[in-house]
Amino acid sequence: MGHDTDEQALHYPFTVPAALEPPAEWATLRRECPVARVTLPSGDAASLVTRYDDVKKVLADPRFNRPMPANEGARVSEDESGGVFNSDMAATIPQSGEGHLLWRRLLNRWFTVKRMNALRPEIEAMADRLVDEMVGHGQPADLKAAFAFPLPVWVICTMLGVPDSDRQDFARWSDTLLSMTRYTQEEIGAAQAEFVAYMGGHVAAKRAEPGDDILSELITSTDAEGTAMPDGVLVATGMALLVAGHETTANMIAKVVALLLADRSRWESLLADRALVRPAVEEALRTDVNAGFGMLRYLDEDFEVGGAVLPAGTTVVCSMAAANRDDAAFERAAEVDLTRSPNPHLSFGAGAHSCLGQALARTELQVALDVLLRRLPGLRLAGPADGLRPVEGLLVGGLRELPVTW
Question: What pLDDT does 2 receive?
Fold first, then answer.
């Protein structure tokens, strides 16, 4: 696999052979072609990096941003500006420099481990309620719909100060905005307009009457010069937190449980030793094959990575999921080891754009497992593991459903 221009570019993203198995291309590319030419669903070209050190190098470099229509970066999907990553919402939030640092600093106060630990009992109580409802409806049940999906939606809505009655709308808007191929441009535009209007009204209400929630804090916070966050950024931030904060975690809760139940000795080992919950969550994050698209970075200057010099104007796709299975970074990388420590996986990214909500995600995943182990020790898959079906056509990967009995 050379780099000559007449070489056939691979179509990305690759398809997984089974819900819990990695695409064969990852290992081949890491071994033979660490910087590979790929074609995105939009038809645009990009360079894919799959090795741990290379992915980390690109993600951690503060010079590079995500592709935007303004910098002529590659688009993910062809039917519009490139989905949620290139939407007005993404463009409104400062992506670099002082503005980005300030935005993150204000939000980071809300996503500290300390604050997450304070939230833990509330998350646990909600998880218990969801288990009660699921058990009440009888078995088999779809753990994703009954438990994994509503839990993070409830948590992020609580943090944003959004009323319970509006949560169904939130879930629908978020699902639509994360689409690569499942909705038309009209549907995506309509969802975004409704969402912006709703969040605008929500921000105005919080301005008039602040509460104990993220948006109220951001409204009343200022930077060193006394500059407050403009309404447009507040609206975009609320939307971004909702989209990022529920879909990815909902999918991950289902995937952690699926991984543990697919080989039930893993579930048994957690039942025997609850201290394994934390490392098990990290290992599930590391070995996740349905992690979604990866992170895009636009190079506005030449950049050397993986033994190749990528010219300015290249869009790079960083596959954190492929990097997480690199034998150069992890011993027996292909194996699931629930005791693995340390586990410096890249599932939350690296550098200035690493996932803001990782403390929240970890808390939700750990609590979800703790509650399920305590309440439903007999939990098992309701069908064969190879019958699990991955979601297709969304930017975040997951399972369509997770049928379980107990």
Answer: 42
**What is the pLDDT, as a whole number, of residue 238?**
85
- With respect to residue 3, please indicate whether it lies within any of the assigned structural domains: no
Per-residue pLDDT tens digits for 151-199: 998 888 888 888 878 877 877 777 777 655 567 778 878 888 888 899 8
- Dmax over CA atoms of the chain, in Å, equals 61
Measured distance CA(163)–CA(34) in Å, rounded: 47
Fill in the DSSP letter of residue 11.
Answer: E
Residue 90 vs residue 21, higher pLDDT: 21
Q: What is d(CA 353, CA 351) in angstroms, rounded to the nearest whole number?
A: 6
Strands 35-39 and 10-11, bridge-based pairing: parallel
* In a domain? residue 4: no
More confident call, 94 vs 143: 143
Domain CATH for 332: 1.10.630.10
The range of the structural domain enclosing residue 116 comes to 10-405
Query: 252: which 2 tokens?
Result: 């991950």
Q: How do residues 205-214 score in pLDDT, each as one tens digit?
A: 998 999 888 8
Question: What number is the average pLDDT over the span 96-107?
Answer: 75
Contact status, residue 356 vs residue 107, Cβ threshold 8 Å: yes
Q: Is residue 2 part of a domain?
A: no
DSSP 82: S
Kindly write down the DSSP assignment for every residue of 260-295, as one continuous string. Answer: HHHTHHHHHHHHH-GGGHHHHHHHHHHH-S---S-E
Query: Token pair for residue 405?
Result: 């009995």
Q: For residues 177 and 392, what is the distance between their CA atoms, to the nearest angstrom?
A: 14
Q: How far is Cα 162 from Cα 242, in angstroms, rounded to an integer?
A: 10
Q: What is the DSSP string of 303-367?
A: EEETTEEEPTT-EEEE-HHHHTT-TTTSTTTTS--TT--S----TT--GGGS-TTHHHHHHHHHH
The number of domains in the chain is: 1
Give a yes or no: residue 57 inside a domain: yes
What gap in Å lies between CA 75 and CA 53, rounded to an integer? 25
Tokens standing for 355? 């996932």
For residues 363 and 120, give the distance between their C-alpha atoms in angstroms, rounded to a whole number. Answer: 7
At residue 135, the pLDDT reads 98
Residue 129 in this model has a pLDDT that exceeds 70 = yes
In one letter, which amino acid is 109? Answer: R
> What is the rounded CA–CA span in Å between residue 229 and residue 358?
23
What is the three-class DSSP state of 20? coil
